[in-house]
Task: structure prediction
Amino acid sequence: MNLDDLTPYCGEWLKGSGPEADIVISSRIRLARNLSSFPFTNRASAHQKAEIEASLRERVDKLDFSPHLVYLQLSNLTPLDRLLLVERQLVSRELANTEGPRGVAVASTMS
Result:
């Protein structure tokens, strides 16, 4: 997946068109859970965090969802690409700016 594919798409509220364009309604669901065999990330070692990230990346790659999910390793992205993910509300600013292994799964096609 090329992150440039995300740039033409944005939420309707970002377009600012329509009869009620001045009203912004935004909602987001964040699911967070500790894996039973690992401590929470604030207590995990760098090695454990790398194991968690690798395990989740592997599992996301095997999922059979439609649209297909693509796993992006944030540590491999440029600061500009991470900013795009923040602006599209796909990751938090904290996640984008944190050091170490971390990632996000996004739909391969945006609509």
